[in-house]
Amino acid sequence: MTSVPDHSPRIRNDIFRRIGAIVPPALWTLLLLVIFWQAIVTLRNIPEYILPAPSQIAGEIGNYWHRLLPNALVTLSEIALGYSLAVLIAVPLAVSIVYSQVMQRAVYPLIVLSQTVPKVAVAPLLLTWFGYGMTPKIVIVIMMSFFPIVINSVMGLRATTPEMLYLARSMGANGWQVFWKFRLPKALPSVFAGLRLATVLSVIGAIIAEFIGADKGLGYLILIAGANFDIARQFAAIILITVIGMSFFGIISWLERRLIPWQEQPQLDGKG
Amino acid sequence: MNIMTDTQSLTPESTAHVRIENVSKVFHGGRKGDVEALRPVSLDIKRGEFVSILGPSGCGKSTLLMLLSGLLGPSAGNIRIDGKKVDGPNSDLGIVFQQDVLLEWRGALDNVLLQAEIRGADMKEAEAKARSLLSMVSLTGFEDAYPRELSGGMRQRVSICRALLHEPPLLLMDEPFGALDAMTRDQLQIDLMKLCAERDMTVFFITHSIPEAVFLSDRVVVMTPRPGRIEDIVEIDLPRPRRLAMREDPKFTSYVRSLTETFKTLGVFREEY
Ligand SMILES: Nc1ncnc2c1ncn2[C@@H]1O[C@H](COP(=O)(O)OP(=O)(O)OP(=O)(O)O)[C@@H](O)[C@H]1O
Ligand SMILES: [Mg+2]
User: Fold this and answer.
1) How near does any CA of chain B get to the CA of A222, in Å?
2) Mind telling me which PANTHER family this protein's record contains (chain B) (predicted)?
3) Which of A118, A244, B36, B109 has the fewest CB atoms within 10 Å, i.e. is most exposed?
4) pLDDT recorded at residue B2
5) Checking DSSP bridges between strand B230-235 and strand B33-46, what pairing results, if any?
6) Phi, psi dihedrals of residue B221, rounded to the nearest 5°
7) CA-to-CA distance for B265 and B37, rounded, in angstroms?
């Protein structure tokens, strides 16, 4: 650190830049939107049963926390369980598709084709088979998140170039070594693209499942609040779901950056 | 000018380290149908010999290298190494591929060490060797750099270190110095000759540069335009160790001139304008 004589404009600029570096610009935009929302509702006297102000929603989250929290935990565990199972099924399946001609030709096309079936349409059926408990929700979460993981993992595992395989063979690498030291690391960026996409879809899956038949969860709360025209309570639940979804996405993205340090991170500030 | 066919270029079995016998290669079923990449080629390489392959782009040099390594199979003919027929990937050699083929998820040092990892070598020893190879090619300080953080020439140098790490008796190099600036190139040529002298290594070296081929080689193999065959084999009778100044030697320049003439008669160079 060099000690340069203070020039106040320069310093103020630095402080702003430092705050700017910690708080991403998008958050400022969000803050502006919330303020605008608050202002409109207050100034125009919009009644709460049409559009509650952010302050009223915040109050609702506080007052209703004792019911929001346990239901959020239910939704969260549906997402976590379904997503984990999806990963556990999808990744080995992708490996088998890449390594086996039979799987590739007899199973993979069916997996791709099955995506044209709208999962919402299947949900009531699952209810009939698995009842009202956690099981149908987990199954729907799996169905939603499994596909992008399979597709992206297959693409990633196929991305190994012939040159890399020549190199491997010239070193006398065996099948295990080719998989662990060449194919898998080469596939990681693509696998994570699938994992990231799947986080968003798994949250959607859990909420859809709860809409269709549940007596717990944030989706259920939204439905009940809707029936009672309790808009603020609906917003409270929506915000909680969003927080869950964003955190989940954030965790996977963080993991991605940790596990794939060689990848250039996309620059969001326009300087890159 | 003698055209090499059949076994007339072959030396007695006992002295040949690598024996290429009437080897040809046709690539089948591409979009352009069958491509004849290599006409029947015969060549013997002695142990410890430095042989360069000179030829215009697309004449089948890389194809010949792939056949030697056993990574591709010949359409006809045989390749023997120490009398043993090559019929699958041969791991008892080092290859510098035309593209550097570095793994983007490994730093420079780890890319070099891949060679030792795959072969199950002693990693402590390998690391010391890898570091000294990297310093030989002036990459000290870049051990942890990912390939995307290296220039093309630096990447190629890492791949050279990788090919040398396990001290292979036979080294196949496909235009290894193509991406380097002239000075680094000069230095690496000298380093390579030094290593060859120390290790008694046999080198099969592909290049586009006539002076480079003359400077490094015991013999220079001249190939015709595609589909390639061997047009001429020139013995380079210059003393070793060779120094950079030797490139002004009249004997050196006369080799370069006569090889240039050969390529002119092959239609590779056209001087009229
Ligand atoms: N896998 C392949 N499939 C079809 N054709 C190929 C394949 N590999 C090489 N060829 C063809 O074989 C010929 C010889 O290719 P090769 O790579 O051996 O040339 P080269 O002498 O190494 O050229 P360069 O100096 O440009 O590297 C070319 O015409 C090329 O189109
Ligand atoms: Mg080539």
Assistant:
1) 45
2) ALIPHATIC SULFONATES IMPORT ATP-BINDING PROTEIN SSUB, TAURINE IMPORT ATP-BINDING PROTEIN-RELATED
3) A118
4) 43
5) unpaired
6) -100, 125
7) 21
* pLDDT tens-digit readout, B242-258: 999 999 999 999 999 99
Q: Does the beta-carbon distance from A170 to B69 stay under 8 Å?
A: yes
Q: What does the alpha-carbon distance between residue A125 and residue A150 come to, in Å, rounded to a whole number?
A: 24
Give the tens place of pLDDT for each residue, B88-136: 898 899 999 999 999 999 999 999 999 999 999 999 999 999 999 999 9
Q: What was the pLDDT predicted at B135?
A: 95
Integer Cα distance of B75 and B25 in angstroms: 5
Closest residue by CA, ligand 1 atom 28: B58
Distance A60 CA to ligand 1 centre (A): 71
Are B244 and B190 in contact, with CB atoms under 8 Å apart?
A: yes
Q: Which residues contact B181 (CB under 8 A, 6 or more apart)?
A: B153
Please give the radius of gyration of chain B, using alpha carbons only, rounded to the nearest integer.
Answer: 19
User: Would you call A176 an interface residue with chain B, using a CB distance cutoff of 8 Å?
Assistant: no
* Residues of chain B neighbouring A172 (CB-CB closer than 8 A): 89, 91, 118-119
* Both structure tokens of B33: 């149908």
Cα–Cα distance, A68 to A265 (Å, whole number): 36
Structure tokens at B259: 């090889």
Residue extent(s) of CATH 3.40.50.300 domains in chain B: 15-93+169-267
Residues in B closer than 8 angstroms to A181, CB to CB, are 103, 114, 117-118
Buried b / exposed e over A220-230, threshold 16 CB at 10 Å, is bbbbbbeeeeb
Would you tell me which CATH number, out of the four given (3.40.50.300, 2.40.150.20, 3.20.20.140, 3.20.20.70), belongs to the domain B15-93+169-267? 3.40.50.300
Please tell me the predicted confidence (pLDDT) of residue A1.
45
Residue boundaries of the structural domains of chain A: 12-43, 67-259
Instruction: With CB atoms and an 8 Å threshold, state whether A181 touches B104.
Output: no
Q: Do A170 and B66 touch (CB under 8 A)?
A: no
Strand pairing category for B219-223 and B230-235:
antiparallel
How far does the centroid of ligand 1 lie from the alpha carbon of residue B16, in Å? 27
CB contact under 8 A, A172 and B118: yes
Say which CATH superfamily domain A67-259 falls into: MetI-like (1.10.3720.10)
Distance B263 CA to ligand 1 centre (A): 19
**Nearest chain A Cα to B99, which residue?**
A163
Spell out which residues of chain A touch residue B99, defining contact as CB-CB under 8 Å. Answer: 163
Q: Which residues surround ligand 2, an ion (CB under 5 A)?
A: B 62, 98
ipTM: 0.91
Cα angle B37, B42, B47 (rounded to 5 degrees) comes to 120
Instruction: Give the predicted TM-score (pTM) of the model.
Output: 0.86
CA of B240 to the centre of ligand 2 (A): 28
Give yes or no for A168 touching B (CB within 8 A).
Answer: yes
